[in-house]
Write a structure and sequence with these properties.
2 copies of one chain form a homodimer. The first copy, chain A, is an alpha/beta fold and 248 residues long. The first copy, chain A, is built from 9 helices and 8 strands. In chain A, helix 2 packs across helix 3, helix 7 crosses helix 8 (217-228) and helix 8 (217-228) crosses helix 9 (231-245).
Chain lengths: 248, 248
């Protein structure tokens, strides 16, 4: 049984959710994301409600246990986002995500920092996006923000890490999300990384969502890790580390 | 080339959208619907933006030309819905939908009536839901509201019509949506209706969306209409009537 630690079930159809379940991906963490910039902060609150109240049930009906993560992604920061922060401060949440930096603007840094401050105060695990372009400097800035906040290492996963940012994130001590998807890492890449650096810090995910993505890459990467590294390591990166990080 | 006149692409994954295209369903009308009751009217405005600005492009990328319809569905009426009405009054829209009655409450009647008033004033086609339970009396009430407004017959389609409500809606003169989906009409049912009542008033749809629905039922029903009735009739109910109704 596998765990996909980072996807967006809201972009998937019921048939995709069934494909996850059939591939043995029985648990997933689905991260808040709105594919346009909202005009109103209120929208984010209703989206978090949809994710936690409706989407969990839809996934369950397809045979997938879904754990929701809420938060403001840097590509969908609404105006007056203080309204959303207040909501995040007041609610009960399993995890914050997808949060992080995209273009490393002043506003993005403020929004990420505010969410991390709430997370630290309230002891909430954070799933932190790193962008496709500008990856190295955005990751450096993200780690700098975390360090400045003295953010607990067990409370953040730096996601979409690639060969360019791997060493830097390994040195930081935070969890590392390996996104297996055409254009990101291949199952072979993931297996190679685990073989070289051990299984302790990594969790596999697909980042599947709205676009034309492959759905069951965690299962494929898990098989490759099992083949190249071993069963114990496969279990860690394809399930147990995600469950430990999310305190399940 | 077929036209699905009523579905919710926001509940479908990219692979489902590709399935539509591969089945020859190259045009669809995607209707606004939020699967929980929003807490804020602002949310609806951002959802209409997502549908018109993002979802159209996502469908296009999968090979499907999507025409968006916006409006307040009776199952997702927000508080202070006047905010949404003002937005509907001010914008440029291809169609209103999914609107209609579910439990025939005073609020639902007000929300439907307000939207129909805007539509009549602004000459906007309306796609009108009828509920699964309570279908006959809800359809009667819907037709009564339309009649009271002297709502133009060419400007509304009464949707999810079944054998219980067919005669009533035929007498009213409005367009009729035939939803082909397990639990609603079968392809055989649709063909039988067209054989008996002609092709002039009907348009086929799947109502595919968030749930475990069949995606390509319009193509299947079209084939059955072609076989049982004829090619000309198939073209009307599986494409041309929807295009005429939406003024494409």
């Amino acid at each position: 049984m596998y765990f996909d630690s980072h996807l967006h079930t809201e972009g998937l159809g019921f048939s995709d959710l069934k494909k996850l379940s059939e591939a043995g991906i029985k648990e997933v963490c689905s991260l808040a994301f709105f594919p346009i910039e909202p005009k109103f902060p209120q929208t984010m609150v209703d989206l978090f409600r949809k994710l936690t109240e409706f989407e969990t049930l839809r996934c369950e009906a397809a045979g997938v246990k879904m754990y929701p993560a809420v938060g403001i992604h840097p590509r969908c920061i609404p105006p007056d986002y203080g309204f959303v922060m207040k909501h995040l401060e007041e609610g009960e949440w399993l995890a914050f995500g997808e949060i992080g930096l995209e273009n490393v603007t002043k506003e993005e840094i403020e929004v990420l920092t505010s969410q991390l401050e709430i997370a630290k105060e309230r002891d909430i695990p954070c799933i932190i996006h790193t962008p496709r372009g500008n990856k190295k400097s955005a990751t450096e800035k993200t780690l700098e923000i975390l360090e400045k906040l003295d953010f607990p290492v067990e409370l953040a996963v730096i996601d979409h890490v690639n060969f360019e940012t791997l060493d830097m994130v390994l040195r930081s001590g935070y969890w590392i999300g390996l996104t297996v998807q055409p254009g990101k890492l291949s199952p072979d890449d993931a297996a190679r990384i685990v073989l070289e650096h051990g299984s302790e810090k990594f969790m596999l995910n697909s980042d599947a969502g709205y676009r034309d993505t492959e759905i069951t890459t965690v299962a494929e990467a898990a098989k490759k890790v099992m083949e190249v590294v071993g069963e114990k390591e496969m279990r860690s990166v394809a399930r147990d580390n995600a469950r430990k990080f999310l305190r399940l």
